[in-house]
Amino acid sequence: MDFGEILDAWDKQCSRKNQRARKSKSLPSREPAARLDPLTEWIGKNGVYDKDRDLDAGQSPGERRRILLARKPDGVLDLHGLRQDEAWLALENFFRHCRGQGFQKLLIIHGKGNHSEGEAILKRMVRRFIEKCPIAGESGYGNVKSGGSGSTWVFLKDRTRDAGPC
Fold first, then answer.
1. Distance between terminal CA atoms of the chain?
2. Which of 17, 59, 124, 127 has its CA 20 to 30 A from that of 32?
3. Buried b vs exposed e over 42-68: b needs ≥16 C-beta within 10 Å?
4. HSE value, Cβ hemisphere, 13 Å, CA-based, for 92
């Protein structure tokens, strides 16, 4: 018996088994379900959250500040391992990009300076950058979840103000 004959015998045997299985089980016909596009599927599972909904123009500055403080940052920059000049350039690019995207709250991770003698070098440099940057608004140290004193959050000033780049 050659290989072709073996395959033919196999096909006949399998087709008989399939016919018997179809006769014994009459399954209801299944029409292909209408497939949703991936975005609609994701929205169905995760829901929709409009982060700008909470920031209406009619809010007082105090309400806006309270909401922004409670909100997660829109952008995060990690400066670990960078020298001061590299970190300064990274901050300039980061702020410019975030301003263009319309971000409002940023988080800068600079580290606590455990490997520095005296005060943390990057921490001091980030503070200087924020003070000089015209689009940087209120800032403070992060909470425990975001790095504590090893991170700094910053609110970007309103886009309608005419503030140049950092």
1. 83
2. 17
3. eeeeeeeeeeeeeeeeeeeeeebeebb
4. 10
Q: Could you count the other beta carbons within 10 Å of the beta carbon of residue 152?
A: 22
Q: Where are the domains of the chain?
A: 59-156
How do residues 68-124 score in pLDDT, each as one tens digit?
888 889 999 999 889 999 999 999 999 999 998 889 999 999 888 766 676 778 989
SS (H, E, C) 116-149: CCCCCHHHHHHHHHHHHCCCEEEEEECCHHHCHH
How many Å apart are CA 73 and CA 44, to the nearest integer? Answer: 25
Q: Which fold has domain 59-156?
A: Ribosomal Protein S8; Chain: A, domain 1 (3.30.1370)
Residues 2 and 7: their CA atoms lie apart, in Å, by 9
With DSSP H G I counted as helix, E B as strand and the rest as coil, what are the percentages for the chain, rounded to 5? 45, 15, 40
Question: Minimal CA–CA distance to 110: which of 148, 80, 68, 154?
Answer: 80
Assessment of whether the complete model's pTM goes beyond 0.70: no
